[in-house]
Amino acid sequence: MDISSYTTEDFVCDESFRNFCNGSDAAAVQSWQKWIGEHPEKAEMIQEARQLISILNARQGNVQDQLDQLKDGMVRFELLKTSFIDRPAKPAPIYHWKSITGIAAALLAIIAAFWLLTPTGKIKTLPSITQAVQSGTEPRKTVVLPDGSVVTLHSNSTLTLGEGFGRTSRELTLSGEALFDVVHGGQYPLIVHTSSVDVEVLGTLFNLNAYPQSGYTETSLFRGKIAVSLKDHPDQRMILTPSQKSVVFNPAGGIARPAADSILKKVALSVDPVNHKAKEIAWVRNRVKIEDEPLETIAGRLQAWYGIPIVFTDNETKGFRYSGTFESETVVKALEALQLSYPFNFRVEKDTILIGK
Fold it and tell me: Residue 47's pLDDT is what?
């Protein structure tokens, strides 16, 4: 089938697209990022499909069975969609996943995804976080933005959200250093302002080092595509692809600015010769070695490392035990890796991660 004629259901049922969403296939990630960039008119449909895949991934059981149920459920959901939109909004009932099977389970997953959308298909903004977030002296502090993007701040960093973030724009300002794991936001690209550069992204993973007192601003890309432009000369714009970084020298930091043609430079990421990982995010990368430890203990280690509270909503989940070694750049990716072994779920509420069944 021609991808350009895909429906939301087709995207969800496409194995390559699911691998792209899960980040499990580098070739699929590169191929879909290129296709999505060439078809901006599909942005909202892509976002809906990613929301559904996220819900399916959070549940347990055979993925193919879930997809078969999803196909039938989507047909039935279309018959209900109009009545949902026309009726006055009511609180959604709470269901226990274990009491729902077959088609009912697929319908609930789709209805849950539908409640995340407005009648026009745009993503509803989540409850707003504080306009300004500071890490202080903490080595790392993780926050989840209203659009679902995850930002991990380095020490002595400040992140300030622009007016109307998540509703009419997605602009924010960074002073310091942060790792951004950005979700696609439909018609609004995420724009990060610093004293030297502006960085525009659609959906990607990148690190931005912009301490005002330093002699440079460094933007390192690991996934997706971003555009970096000089603050004072927006016409000087550079496109970065994965494994590249831009360096902008800042004379205010005490380092003499180089020749004009070297003010905005593009170079490769610095790779550690021992572990072959990028040095630019060594400060946030968490390598966890687990020897038959309960999830409660592991969660405590993740909380201390990433600087975000983690709370359990039931006692049984605390006792799930794990062994192995994994490495992750964000706390969300770390928890998703652990989910592969045990059936727990997690969600973010008011900058706290809740773990339960």
Answer: 80
Question: Within a domain: residue 223?
Answer: yes
Give the domain CATH number at 199: 2.60.120.1440
Torsion, Cα 289 291 295 299, to 10 degrees, reads -30
- Tell me which of 114, 146, 169 is where a domain ends: 114
- The shares of helix, strand and coil residues in the chain, as percent rounded to the nearest 5, are 35, 30, 35
pLDDT given at position 54: 65
Q: Is residue 124 part of a domain?
A: no
**Together in a domain, 91 and 162:** no
Cα separation, 234 vs 82, in Å, equals 45
The pLDDT of residue 323? 84
Q: What pLDDT, on a 0 to 100 scale, did the predictor assign at position 29?
A: 83
Distance CA 183, CA 91 (A): 27
CA torsion, points 292, 296, 298, 303, in degrees to nearest 10? Answer: -170
pLDDT at 111 over 70: no
> Is 176 in the same domain as 38?
no
The 3-state DSSP class for residue 73 equals helix
Residue pLDDT, tens place only, 286-340: 788 888 889 999 999 899 888 899 999 989 899 888 888 877 788 888 888 888 8
85 belongs to a structural domain: yes
**200 touches 220 (CB < 8 A):** no
Query: Coil, helix or strand for 136?
Result: coil
Q: Establish if 228 belongs to a structural domain.
A: yes
Half-sphere exposure of 197 (CA within 13 A, CB side): 29
| Domain match, 102 and 151 both | no
Range of the domain at 271: 132-281
Identify whether the C-beta of residue 262 lies closer than 8 Å to the C-beta of residue 287.
Answer: no
* pTM of the predicted structure, to 2 decimals: 0.56
Span 165-219, pLDDT tens digits = 877 888 999 999 999 998 876 678 899 999 889 999 977 899 999 988 888 899 9
User: How many domains does the structure of the chain reveal?
Assistant: 3
Close Cβ partners of 166 (under 8 Å, ≥ 6 residues apart):
125, 126, 128, 145, 146, 147
Domain holding 299: CATH number? 3.55.50.30
CB 220 within 8 A of CB 278: yes
